[in-house]
Amino acid sequence: MIALSAHTLSNMWLKGMSDKSLEYPLAYGYSLVGRVVACGSNVYDADELMGRLVFTFSPHSSRVVVDRDAIQVVPDGISAEDAVFFPSVETALSLVHDARVRMGENVAVYGQGLIGLLVTSILSMQSLPLTSSADCFGSVTAFDALDARLVVSSSLGASSALKPDLAAAAGPFDCSIEVSGNPRALQSAIDHTSNNGRIVVGSWYGNTDVVLKLGIDFHRSNKEIVASQVSKISPTLAGLWSKTRRFSFTWALVKSLRPSRLIAKRLPLYEAQQAYELLDKGEELVICFKYE
User: Fold this and answer.
1) 78 & 102 share domain
2) I need a labelling partner for 122 at 20 to 30 A (CA). Which of 22, 191, 201, 228 fits?
């Protein structure tokens, strides 16, 4: 089983690799879940692995041959449909770590695609009511242009789920996380983050030219803009967090969040063209390819 999202389609492929030539067959993707059906003679734990549900950062395929070190055994209690979200949940966790959100802070999340929704969900786990009133340990405000996504944001615990043109009225924010892939959202994040606040940019803009207005107000604001990417541990965390530790906690989040509820369709791989067309139109959030 593999997962496909609009974020992967538009940001990673269309924008970032438009100058690359394509060859058929194309091995694409990085999230594959399946069961072990055979092991090499040098696999030390072959008996324990046989038949187990495992995850690997591999392209879309019905069968793969990978090194033992390239697979992770899916923990008990996690389904294949939840496990396929492992890379996306790790990315969301990495963004939250890089944002360094403190208790009591008000956070904005720009973009409620798959990654944005997962960021919102993780942040909302930390937004606990102080009393029966609306007061809480900070707030999480989600922004997106699509009404359907805002409905999901609210269901995942966002304090507010708003259209982008309401950012000025809702702010300012102590921290803004931008995962929309839209330069206008990045500008809004910069404009509506408090002086001395933090803007974490998780979007992949590829070859897109991004023009920002960074005038006198920004110049005097002491705002911090951080580029966040999941492939490495931030230097500020490297003394405490390893990849192994983050992987382990990501699995705990997968089990808690149950991200499979975000799946809109389950299709066989031969209907891949339909899947990409639906994602390109913004009609679906996440589509899974399922192998029988």
Assistant:
1) no
2) 191
